[in-house]
Amino acid sequence: MKYLMSNFSRVDVAFTRGKGAKLWDSNGEKYIDFAAGIGVCSLGHASPVVIEAINTQSAMIIHSSNIYRVLPQEVLAKKISNLLGYQTYAVFCNSGAEANEAAIKMARKYGATKFESKKYEILTLKNSFHGRTMATLSATGQDKFHPEIFAPYIEGFKFYDGIDEIIANISDKTVAVMIELIQGEGGICPLDKKSVQKLAKILKEKNLLLITDEVQCGVYRSGEFVASKIYGIEPDIITFAKGLAGGVPIGACVARENIFAPGEHGSTFGGNHLATSTANAVLRELEYLYESGELKKTTDEFVENLEKIVKDFPNFFESHTGLGLMQGLVLKDSTNLSILFAECLRNGLLVLKSGSKTLRFLPPLNIKKKEIKAGFEILRKTLEELQD
Ligand code: PLP
């Protein structure tokens, strides 16, 4: 497209409408959606809950400004704290990268004000992904995100292979460790629970911060409201985005301490009435899905299908990986990743790639049984065609 910059290598398909986990393109072709806009459309497409929230709120007020109180923002901040089960203080923004930017600034302020000598270093994992802004790119450990063309990157980040190496390298400059409990772009890799708990304990003893980036794995994607719950930890700072408002742009960064003073951080759009009231409605519905056991049933069904695929197509797959409805199939031959992505799409199924050899699945959290069945039929058909 002549008028768009070429920063995305887009597939030549344009979706024009959807319903649940079904999508239709501009030619009227139907697809099953196991990607949910990269984990964003947590209640699927054209969800009555999201439509109702947007319609009701936009008929009243979409935006005023953070100069004034924003009531649905206050409701959302309290809801997140209640769901976490401990007091947190929230700042709202518009994306995952911005939520992580806020977390980084909070850590910097904490390091500058809580200790006798300033601490500013944030340790992250080499296989991490934390966003595309300059600071979050600098926090991202994967080398491929640090091309020379964007240098110099922001100082103060160090990357390590694993949690044990992070622990071994905590220095008197270290203020925080930032991790994705389930690495989303790095191949759907859940971190080891015992190592994470050990890290959390050590950081607590040293009064240093644990930041969990739950932009992809948070908001019930892992099966719990936050993956931190599965890991049995209570991080000092948690970031959210993607699925929080079912497709309306939003990001949130919550901390156990009220770190920022007036004027130290902000966003024009962040947490406006439309985004936060939609998030409130989405969270109510997701909480119902969780409490009623529906989410668990859907997850079991989905994972069972993935396991069968691994068993029936051993030439293609090594294993399945992931938690909740954040799942991946690890390929034996990485050259099949792009082929499978393209062939699934051609046959009417949206899947995603992650890392170099993981086929990623982030379906809507309310995907129906018959949509799961239809999607896996397409995946099987695609694999059979490729096998021949
Ligand atoms: N952190 C994680 C773990 C992510 O998966 C992503 C996006 O994929 C981001 C941060 C960046 O989020 P956004 O693209 O909304 O800025």
Q: Beta-strand percentage?
A: 15-25%
Bound molecules: pyridoxal-5'-phosphate
> Any idea what the radius of gyration is?
21 Å
The assigned CATH architecture of the largest domain is: 3-Layer(aba) Sandwich
Instruction: Please give the number of β-strands.
Output: 17
- How many structural domains in the coordinates? 2
The amount of helix comes to 25-40%
Q: Sheet bearing the most strands, described?
A: 7 strands, mixed
| Superfamily (CATH H level) name of the largest domain | Type I PLP-dependent aspartate aminotransferase-like (Major domain)
Cα distance spanning the termini? 36 Å
Please report the number of helical segments: 12
Low-confidence stretches: none
Helix and strand string, N-terminal first? EEEHHHEHEHEHEEEHEHEEHHEEHEEEH
Q: Write down the overall geometry.
A: globular
What's the helix and strand layout?
Elements: E1 15-19, E2 22-25, E3 30-33, H1 36-39, H2 48-60, H3 71-84, E4 89-93, H4 96-113, E5 121-125, H5 134-139, E6 157-160, H6 163-168, E7 174-179, E8 182-183, E9 189-190, H7 193-205, E10 209-213, H8 227-231, E11 237-240, E12 251-255, H9 273-291, H10 294-312, E13 317-323, E14 326-331, H11 336-347, E15 349-350, E16 352-354, E17 358-361, H12 369-387
Parallel strand pairs: 3-15, 5-6, 5-7, 7-10, 10-11
Antiparallel strand pairs: 1-2, 2-3, 4-12, 8-9, 11-12, 13-14, 14-17, 16-17
Helix pairs in contact: 2-9, 3-9, 10-12, 11-12
Bound molecules: pyridoxal-5'-phosphate (PLP).
